[in-house]
């Protein structure tokens, strides 16, 4: 029972990652001219949220803390670093590969 539930969770996390990439592609490649820059920048948080949730869910069994309070403090710092890395992957690798003009839209 536990392994089938674990496999279902892994599938859900992979679906979230794929859904985030599909949303990125649709909004930042196909429909980018239909929306304002302000909306696109603000909306980018939603696919990032899905992407980060999927990655975190897949990594959780490997990074789950066990121990005293000091372990939890270091674990929270590691998780914060993980989310920073995921954010940079999303903003500097995934979005520019889907929408090559993303940087020029932002004025960079």
From TrEMBL:
Q: Which residues cross the membrane?
A: 12-31, 37-60, 72-95
Record keywords? Membrane, Transmembrane, Transmembrane helix
Its recorded name reads Uncharacterized protein
Q: Which organism is it from?
A: Winogradskyella eximia
């Amino acid at each position: 029972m536990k392994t089938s539930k674990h496999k279902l969770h892994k599938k859900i996390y992979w679906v979230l990652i794929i859904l985030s990439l599909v949303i990125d592609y649709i909004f930042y490649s196909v429909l980018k001219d239909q929306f304002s820059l302000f909306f696109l920048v603000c909306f980018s948080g939603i696919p990032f949220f899905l992407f980060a949730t999927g990655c975190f869910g897949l990594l959780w069994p490997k990074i789950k803390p066990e121990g005293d309070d000091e372990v939890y403090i270091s674990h929270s710092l590691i998780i914060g670093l993980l989310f920073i890395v995921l954010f940079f992957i999303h903003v500097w690798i995934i979005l520019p590969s889907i929408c090559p003009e993303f940087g020029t839209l932002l004025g960079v």
